[in-house]
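Students often ask why inverse folding is considered easier than folding. One informal answer: many sequences map to the same fold, so there is more than one right answer. In these notes we will look at a single instance of the problem. The structure comes first.
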């Protein structure tokens, strides 16, 4: 069984990844420049934020499985089906990690943790201290997408005695969440948190029009996919103080460009797409444990979990 992991990894991450697989498996971590030489006899392909399309699949005649993390907008599912390759994601495997990251961002924002940390480390004088914060008790959060992560965020926010509004394309039975339409959610929420996949219908779901419907002190949280937010419109809204701020773990172009205006704005908190990677750079132990279990199912000719297509 030959497993090819397609992407760029630092040395420490590679070490962690190799240790996640059985010693008897042939595992290769391959950057894009070296992929062609490894594809011809690959059984399993794990792409890390790189595109999987028909051209690539045509070079992998033995391929049985494309295994992704929670997101799979980088995989052409139609092409996988045409080539007889099973595609699976790992839905929910990092849900708690991402939900915890959301709460960390919200708390860091309202409790001014980055500012206060820098103030003390910069040896600021007490009479220079200047900040505005808030408690979460009584605030309203609007959660767009009530899947694995969205539901956990709702539970955490209930524990903080917040009012939780939710929007989903289908009815979700959660007694602690009031499901509303998007316009109501934008109008009434102090915090708006995105938890949707990137599809044609969710691309730029948050845009100039929706910013105009939000409270002027609203906080936007995005840990889903960068393309769900029109980044240019977000930058304008932040510069014009149309909303209070944003906490972002994902961006339209990743990694975030060095000259991105987001890097210079005072009313944003930024993390480099690490919400679902709590165990280290480009590594989540539970994620790779799921990968191993799913690959073992394929090896036993069983149906793997979280199938995205039918072959």
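Output (designed amino acids):
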């Amino acid at each position: 069984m030959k497993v090819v992991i397609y992407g760029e990894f630092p040395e420490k991450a590679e070490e962690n990844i190799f240790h996640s697989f059985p010693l008897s498996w042939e595992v290769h971590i391959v950057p894009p420049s070296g992929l062609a030489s490894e594809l011809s006899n690959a059984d399993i392909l794990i792409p890390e934020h790189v595109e999987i399309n028909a051209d690539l699949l045509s070079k992998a005649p033995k391929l049985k499985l494309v295994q992704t993390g929670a997101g799979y907008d980088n995989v052409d599912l139609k092409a996988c089906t045409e080539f007889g390759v099973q595609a699976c994601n790992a839905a929910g495997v990092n849900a708690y990690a991402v939900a915890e990251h959301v709460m960390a961002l919200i708390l860091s924002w309202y409790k001014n943790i980055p500012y206060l940390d820098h103030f003390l480390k910069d040896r600021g004088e007490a009479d220079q201290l200047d900040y505005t914060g808030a408690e979460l008790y009584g605030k309203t959060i609007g959660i767009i997408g009530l899947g694995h992560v969205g539901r956990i965020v709702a539970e955490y926010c209930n524990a903080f005695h917040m009012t939780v509004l939710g929007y989903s394309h289908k009815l979700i039975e959660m007694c602690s969440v009031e499901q509303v339409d998007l316009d109501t959610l934008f109008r009434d929420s102090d915090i708006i948190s995105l938890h949707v996949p990137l599809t044609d219908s969710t691309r730029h779901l948050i845009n100039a029009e929706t910013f105009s419907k939000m409270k002027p002190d609203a906080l936007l949280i995005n840990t889903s996919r960068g393309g769900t937010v029109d980044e240019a419109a977000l930058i304008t809204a932040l510069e014009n103080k149309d909303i209070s701020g944003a906490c972002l773990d994902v961006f339209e172009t990743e990694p975030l460009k060095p000259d991105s205006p987001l890097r210079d704005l005072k009313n944003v908190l930024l993390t480099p797409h690490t919400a679902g990677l709590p165990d280290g750079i480009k590594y989540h132990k539970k994620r790779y444990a799921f990968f191993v279990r799913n690959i073992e199912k394929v090896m036993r000719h069983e149906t793997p979990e979280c199938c995205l297509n039918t072959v």
